[in-house]
Amino acid sequence: MENSTVMPVPVAYNDMGAEASLRDHVGWVWYQKNEFIPDRDKDLRIFLTFESAQYYAVVYFNSKLIGEHEGGHLPFSFEVTEHVKFGADNRVTVAVNNTLSYSTIPEAEFQYKARKEMAFGGIRTVYLEKKPKIHIDDIRVVSDHVGAIFWKIVLDGCSSGCAAKVRVLDADGNEVMKAAGLTGSGQVKNPKMWWPRGMGYANLYTFRVEISSPDGQIVDQYDEEFGFRSVTYDNHQMYINNKPFYCIGFGMHEDSEIHGRGYDGAVMTKDLNLFEWVGANCYRTSHYPYAQERIRESDRRGIAVILETPAVGLKVFTDHNLKLHKQIVTEMIMRDKNHPSVIMWSLSNEPHTERKESRNYFKTLVDLAHDLDQTRPVTIVYGPSHWEDDQTADLIDVVCLNRYWGWYDDMGYLETVNQSVVFDYTMWYEKFKKAMIMTEYGADSIVGLNQQPAVDFSEQYQNELIRETHKALDHLRKAKILTGEMIWNFADFMTAPAALRAVGNHKGIFTRTRQAKQAAYTLRDRYLKLLPQV
């Protein structure tokens, strides 16, 4: 390969060099690696799995085309058994293209002088899975807060005659239920429920599956973590285990120095430790599904998650885009359906739902999400549409709304923030009668820029805007309109150059290197006071 270099995986490649041509690259890149597969694996089936590739991937194994995948941030896999050279090196090659257009999700208008988002490209973790000829392909575990459990196990390589034994183990490894069958239901007595932070402990159980072939030989076993918890809602409130839940947290990006949008275990750990420091109990995976490692850790820490597709700012509602969007919704729900931390599915961020053609488009997606998962509410995060013209909010379960009074609207006029937020949210509620979450508000601040009285981009302005917004949020909470509040953003993140983007977006209450701004202490004071109430 020409111009080749060593590239770590997982990572977004953009910040791996010193040249603007790599940082700003849009188009094809090629990855290649040799992997030794020993002779002892000859009786196994070999699968090549990608946790994600951004955005379009063409995969080769030993120079044979084995498959293609469109859509970033979600896993895909191809069986390569028939192409494997056992006892030898095997070459894995993948071509990845990060170009976006009006026929991709997320969509984009590609113009040299009008790039709104940083065009991060790259791949998450890639690995070979070695499975028996008969193996577990999927496990679905549905449980509630009183100990009821339903399961469905899908096998690959066995059309009939295989048997399944299932056991439920508590956190200490004690067996609390056992049963048999590829599908079934049961009851665990006095379960320890999974709770978000501030409401109790994030108790997890293990669902252990053991598969036997028709001749009685044990051929596969798998452990799946889950929790006993329920998510319900009415037109005022969301509930976890029948207790009122108020989401306090963040919109954020899976973004850091050097790694870009690539997964970094150290950064993830730092982020979630800061969540606990500030008193947050919830975040939205804006604006794409995050790495599975972060979702698993959220399970363990009791941090609730609103999981979102990569559909940002949709303007085009074609049959082609709908087909792709359905694929993405299906992949997202199938990946994360068993995680107790996931409390809601978000179909899109800031789509143009004031357009009439958006209604049938999103009705199809809402129906699909409800068909795939009857245990969680479905939302759309609204931005450009308004209560007067929105075509879709009656279709969803909880209304999520992004508003930037005092920043993109009435910048510099902090005295308008309280009244504007209260009026806007009240009108949405009066029209649609749905519980609401403020999923974005905030202002940019350049760390160390201090001005008194406050001016735009100073730490003081960000801090004062947040305080004014909190006055409105308190009013809306008392009116039983809000079931959550999430500031934008957890930490500063990189964007493409723009007039309002001084080396990225600076709406974070932490810097990109995770150092606290003034606003972090204001938010911590509020969240720690709210946390015992939720």
TrEMBL record:
Keywords associated with the record: Glycosidase, Hydrolase
Enzyme class: hydrolase
The UniProt record lists the keyword Hydrolase: yes
Molecular function GO labels: beta-glucuronidase activity; carbohydrate binding
GO cellular component: extracellular space
Domain Glycoside hydrolase family 2 catalytic: 234-529
GO biological process, one term: carbohydrate metabolic process
Domain of life of the organism encoding this protein: Eukaryota
Enzyme Commission code: 3.2.1.31
All residue ranges annotated as the Glycosyl hydrolases family 2 sugar binding domain in the record: 13-103
Domain Glycoside hydrolase family 2 immunoglobulin-like beta-sandwich span(s) in chain numbering: 164-229
Family: Belongs to the glycosyl hydrolase 2 family.
Functional description taken from the UniProt entry: Plays an important role in the degradation of dermatan and keratan sulfates.
Matching PANTHER family: BETA-GLUCURONIDASE
Protein name as annotated: Beta-glucuronidase
